[in-house]
Amino acid sequence: MTCILLAAALSACGGEAPAPSPTAENGIRAKSAQEILDTARANAAEQSSVHIKGTSSCPLGKFFTDMRLTKDGQGTGTARFSGTVLNIVTTPTSLYVKADLTFWSGLTTPAKAATIGDKWVSLAPATNPCLANLGSFNAVTTAYLNFPGVPVKENSVAVFGEPAQLVAIPPDVGIWVSARGPELPIQVDETSTDTHIAMGEWSAPVTVEVPAPGDTIDGAQFKN
Fold it and tell me: What's the rounded Cα separation, in Å, for the pair 158 and 49?
């Protein structure tokens, strides 16, 4: 839990006057670890959107992602796999991906990959769970906030400069929950899988531009 312990060392300078009520802490530190985690999960589920950013992995490999997701099933952003950047747009029923020739050449024949150009490719979400899940609010919050195990509170002050309480789930999961304002997740770490996902901008407006039909190719035709 090296990164968790390092994050726990973050703190603001002392000696300042008490903050006014809008920035006062929310009382989270008085709760048990399970209460904190339950509240954070429930509060997250009630939000209309979230911005996630960080590293994790899936069957396609290790990735860095930066996605904005809405609770109604839409998402927009990017994921980088081994230096290849994928632009991703999701709707409740569709998954659209735009990538370079190298990426498509690994999934279909070189001749078929060359015909894609700069168009979006419509893929079946059910057969592309890694990318579809990255664009799903429900999938992301379930995957990163529902690790099994018994949570414990760790000594903590802040993460990314924000007052937060660290809840650890042994052996190597840490979930930071905001200690100011709504009790919402800020950061999730799982060191064994090199997962480090920041969560923020909860319920902020998100604009998702679905590719126009003329800019889209049906991915079913590119199967080998």
Answer: 23
By C-alpha distance, which of 148, 196, 161 is closest to 1? Answer: 196
Nearest-angstrom CA–CA distance, 209 and 90: 9
| Bond before 171 cis per omega within 30 degrees | yes
pLDDT digits (tens, 9 = 90+) for 51-73: 999 999 999 899 999 999 999 99
Determine whether 164 is exposed, middle or buried from the number of CB atoms within 10 Å of its CB (0-12, 13-18, 19+): buried
Set out the domains of the chain in order of their start, with CATH numbers: 26-222 (2.50.20.20)
User: How many angstroms separate the CA atoms of 214 and 218, rounded?
Assistant: 11
Q: Give the number of other Cβ atoms within 10 Å of residue 224's Cβ.
A: 6
Query: What is the helix (H) or strand (E) element at residue 111, kind and residue range?
Result: helix 110-114
Identify the pLDDT of residue 22. 55
* Other CB atoms within 10 A of residue 160 CB: 12
The helices-and-strands tally (H runs, E runs) of the chain is 6, 13
CB of 55 within 8 A of CB of 64?
yes
pTM, to two decimals: 0.87
| End-to-end CA, the chain | 43
